[in-house]
Amino acid sequence: MFTGIVQATCQVVSIHKQAGLKTFEVEMTPELTQGLVTGASVANNGVCLTVTKVVNDKVFFDVMEETLALTNLGQLSVGDAVNIERSLTYGTEIGGHIISGHVHTQATVKAVSNTAEHYNIELQVDPHWMNYIFYKGFVGINGCSLTVGKISEDGFILHLIPETLKLTNLGHYKAGDKFNIEIDSQTQVIVDTVERVLAKKQLLNN
């Protein structure tokens, strides 16, 4: 489990292609690798990955073909920066919202508006997933816990503060790029339950 509070952006220093997967080598800070062991879970751009090896602050992850196809990890190149968060430790402050690291879909960047007054990113999402995204609701974007600023039929807008841009890789993205999206699980359960109840009621009335 994770909180959606990105701890650092870290560079991908190598990618090794193997049968059915790719091995990513990510260079982290000593603070992030302290106590990190093989088998631990680390969110990379919001994707929960298992540590396979740690060598001198270089952390290795094996990423299967399905994960590469369903997330933006498949588009990563050597030198790219990924948002990193270690697993949630109970007893510490939770500043975001609980996310699982299981990406539901990807969103395409439609436009970026960067002015002296604001930094907005407009995203387009498959209409199915818009059923779970609400104005002022939470959504995981590349592992960042963010509040939805505005919604439309096929997407939504994020209003980003300078601190978020400084601590994450969100400011590196441009029109046409894709973000990993994790919707709020509680919202999904509520929406799906209401839809089932209404569908059952309509069936009974017919």
Automatic annotation (TrEMBL):
The first-level EC class reads transferase
Q: Where are the Lumazine-binding repeats?
A: 1-97, 98-194
Task: Give the signal sequence positions.
Answer: none
User: What InterPro entries is this protein classified in?
Assistant: ATP_synth_asu-like_sf (IPR023366), Lumazine-bd (IPR001783), Lumazine-bd_dom (IPR026017), Riboflavin_synthase-like_b-brl (IPR017938)
Pfam families annotated for this entry?
Lum_binding
Residue ranges annotated for the Lumazine-binding domain, each copy included:
1-97, 98-194
Q: Can you say what this protein is called?
A: Riboflavin synthase
To which species is this protein native? Shewanella saliphila
Q: Which gene encodes it?
A: ribC
